[in-house]
Amino acid sequence: MKKWMFFKGVKIMLFATSAAIVFGYLVVWLWNALIPEIFHANPITFWQGIGLLVLSRILFGGFGHKWGGANRKHGMFKEKLEQKMASMSPEELMEFQAKWKNHCGYGWNRNNKRTEDIPTEN
User: Fold this and answer.
1) Can you give the pLDDT at residue 51?
2) What's phi and psi for 108, nearest 5 deg?
3) In whole angstroms, what is the distance from residue 93 CA to residue 82 CA?
């Protein structure tokens, strides 16, 4: 069992290292292709590209599913809303949905049709 965990750890380390190398070179390539032309800045090295990746991770919290704070906050909001809606009576739920239907979508549904243009069943 421990041998399997060791090999899994080695695989993860190899994948993380290769991903860092690929993303580092991608940042360097994009920077050196665009920024010197647009802003008359100097080209960067591989290690500076890795530094930019780390800095962007620190500032913006991207690159992952679990690591970003925004995903956790969205999940908590969604859970609170579901709990609130579960405790509503059917009349309250219909009133709540009617109130927010046009507020969030500005009168448009997901198919880009005005909600007034959609026929309703009577």
Assistant:
1) 94
2) -120, 145
3) 11
Query: What torsion, rounded to 10 degrees, do the Cα atoms 92, 94, 98, 103 define?
Result: 70
43 with 32: CB under 8 angstroms? Answer: yes
State which H helix or E strand residue 78 sits in. Answer: helix 69-86
Encode pLDDT of 37-68 as tens digits: 999 999 999 999 999 999 988 888 865 555 44
pLDDT of residue 66: 53
DSSP 69: H
Backbone conformation region of residue 81, classed left if phi is above 0, alpha if psi is from -120 to 50, else beta = alpha
* Run of H or E including 56: helix 46-60
DSSP 8-state secondary structure symbol assigned to residue 88: S
How far apart are alpha carbons 75 and 69 in whole angstroms? Answer: 10
Q: Model pTM?
A: 0.49
How is the chain split into domains, by residue range? 2-65
CA angle 84–86–73, rounded 5-degree value: 45
